[in-house]
Structures are given as structure tokens and as C-alpha cells.
Design goal:
150 residues; alpha+beta; two-stranded antiparallel sheet; 5 helices; 8 strands; 37% helix
Length: 150
Amino acid sequence: MLMAFSDEGQAMNKNVLVKTIQTMNSHLPTRRVNLAELLKMEKPGIRGKDNTFFITDKSELDLISASLPRFLWSRLRLPMLIEMSPDFGSGSARIQGEVEVELVCKLLGKDRQYSKQMIIYMPEVRDLRRKLPTTTQYAFITNLRERGVE
């Protein structure tokens, strides 16, 4: 059975989807902070868009700083975002940023990738979150472009 949707109905569905994703991402930081800055803070943490203050565990910062050369500390933005989207395939997530990719490869024991992004799968996501629960956060994204048949 084929169903036709009006442009108005599709626009309304998109608006609902956008609002839902915005709500799901309300915990994300207003500004990500680099590792060098966090290491200098007495009580390291990041404020979310919803005004929640997330404390960053110093032992995680130590693990991260031991995993990366010092010259990269100012380039690593935390919390590291684990982007979840159906566009990446079932059970997969994306990590973006050259230094972020380098860190994830090191922590997960993967071959170093010289790339600005990488896809990881649920067992790796769980492993990463287990190692870095306070310095990683999920971000939910979607592609709202039309996927029609031509």
C-alpha cells in the first residue's frame, strides 16, 4: 500500500524530529575544552547546554595525557563526541577530529589512522565509554535530506 504525505505533513515530521534530537542533545557542552586547559583546572569539568556541570575524572585526564604527545594536548577537545546516527549503519558511531581519532586508535589497540574521522562499532563504543566515561559523550545526529526515488 502506497501512502502519500503532504509537504506540510513532512515539514511537521521534520520539525518533530529536529526538536527530539535537540532534546536528546541538551546535555552536550556549550563549548568543548582542550585537554591542556582541563589539566590546569582545580576541578576540571564542562558545562552542558542544559546548564548541567559535568565533572571530569582526573584519572581519565591522566590516561588521555599519557596516551598522547604533549604537543597534541591543546588540539584534543573534550568531551570527545561519539556521534550516533542511522546513516553510519546499525550499531556504529563516528569519531571526528584528527587527534580524537589518534586517541581512540591508541585506547582501543587499533592501527593508527591518519584520518579526520573514523567509524567504530558497538563493542568498541562500550570499551571506549568504559575507559572514558566522563570525557566522552553521545551526540545524536541525523541527515534530514530527502531520500526519495527518482
